[in-house]
Amino acid sequence: xxxxxxxxxxxxxxxxxxxxxxxxxxxxxxxxxxxxxxxxxxxxxxxxxxxxxxxxxxxxxxxxxxxxxxxxxxxxxxxxxxxxxxxxxxxxxxxxxxxxxxxxxxxxxxxxxxxxxxxxxxxxxxxxxxxxxxxxxxxxxxxxxxxxxxxxxxxxxxxxxxxxxxxxxxxxxxxxxxxxxxxxxxxxxxxxxxxxxxxxxxxxxxxxxxxxxxxxxxxxxxxxxxxxxxxxxxxxxxxxxxxxxxxxxxxxxxxxxxxxxxxxxxxxxxxxxxxxxxxxxxxxxx
Length: 286
Known about the structure:
Blueprint: E1 11-14, E2 22-23, E3 35-39, E4 48-51, E5 57-60, H1 67-73, E6 82-88, H2 93-102, E7 107-113, H3 121-133, E8 136-139, E9 144-149, E10 152-158, E11 174-179, E12 182-186, H4 192-202, E13 210-212, H5 224-230, E14 234-237, H6 250-258, E15 262-265, H7 266-269, E16 272-276, E17 281-283
Parallel strand pairs: 5-6, 6-7, 7-8, 12-13, 13-14, 14-15
Antiparallel strand pairs: 1-2, 1-9, 3-4, 3-16, 4-5, 9-10, 10-11, 11-12, 16-17
Helix pairs in contact: 2-3
């Protein structure tokens, strides 16, 4: 079994009443006061890589194939062969396919995933590789906090219960990254019903500078209610230019236009990287 030499802990606090806390602390090099979040160009899929101000690293999803390895190599030191936290939001191939390639190449400190179950060969391979990694395994549930150090943290907003038998998109992991007064919303492929449910629970606390468009810009996500509460400055479409689904759908584009949100697209711009100093978010030029 492989374990991360870098990792001596990260905090996963389950805040829900009556639920125990998980403590897992991570040791890593100091990284100053900046947070970087990169929406990786992996074609038709999602992959987000972030480096916290403390130097702790997180990978949310890995896109459909080995493309994510190339993107990680461009953003990590050649000597760095570990990732502190990996989150597999749900079992669909365009989210976990690339993680199958990441697992043998990097030491992973913690693997978080939804309780929703997949039924494909790719999902079975991911589970096998994750088991062999020897990392801490955590089932995502609303109320958990992943402490990334120096005031940065990820909060899990959904699912709020065991979802082993629901549709994979319904059971995907929705997370919000917070650093100072800035924040990023990662809404996976959650449908509008789930988004609206989260809005009914959290309301004004959803406000975020950056929103990853749900389900790559599908009309089934990005409800006006949810977008209104998140009130982002930027929205990112993570997708391939020639996708067979027609993403982003015109209805979704119109919603973000109506709210005056600046749209960025991995199809046109490749990997999109944001930087936050805890007070404001800016897009880094390629």
